[in-house]
Amino acid sequence: MLKGKKVLITGGNGFFGKHVVSKLNTYDLKDLYYPTSKQFDLTKKDEMYCMLESLRPDIVFHLAASVGGIEANLNNPAKFYFDNLIMGANIIDLCHYFKVSKLVNWGTVCSYPKFIPVPFKEDNLWDGYPEDSNAAYGLAKKMMIVQSAAYRKQYGFNSINLLPINMYGPGDNYDKKTSHVIPALIKKCVDAARLSLDEVIVWGDGLSTREFMYVDDSAEALILAAEKYNEPVPLNIGTGIETRIKDIAMLIARNTKFKGKITWDKAQPSGQPRRSLDISKMNKCLDYTPRTSLEIGIIKTIEDYINRF
Question: Domain spanning 6-168+213-240+276-292: which CATH class is it, in words?
Fold first, then answer.
């Protein structure tokens, strides 16, 4: 369904967006647009209106988000809530107004309740409140699901919502204040190895579990969903593999040749105790299984950090 279409990507110049753009450039599209935030501020409805009016896309991928790791979420709950809420509300309303044929919203696993059975099933999404440290972000993104359902019911507008697990890979954000766990650990371990330090300190107790998906695999799943998925129910996007943060840290330390001690700062939050997705519906609806193992993906990301910094 992408052939000969005009496609717009919000957030196309970000970490994930660049990988999506790279893959879509291999498709036979009519046009591919990915304007920067300097061109159009997506938290301002008049600027988003101008963007859609001038580009008139057939299909929109909404990837833009205000996002970060635990520390960034703790320090910026109001910003993450407002920015993500208003961007989601604007993009759905205006894509309907300009008769976009399909909107693909890239949500977040943070929308899931803190305490539900693992792996998370799409049917569990409304069974409780999200983990406190990222609730503002998760709930703001979750409202796109509510709005999508309302616009589908009243206007017949085709908007789908995807619930991805944590992504990582080359080009990731390695900033020590805003990065997610894998790039943050890579930075800590590579820098410590370079300086011959004998210790790195990591937040939490390391016992929390997470699921990680290599960025190129995520981009493939996103595009397949645009082509194949049209249901109002959100769709999990992940690997289905649950891993302890402590094991991730050991894997990164081994592959960065960091020989020192990893000290866990248990006075700091660990985030949600367990997090992993049931991807059976993704496997069935998209006929897709991620291809990149966690270790191979981490090695590629370590190489990226070393080459860039």
Answer: alpha beta
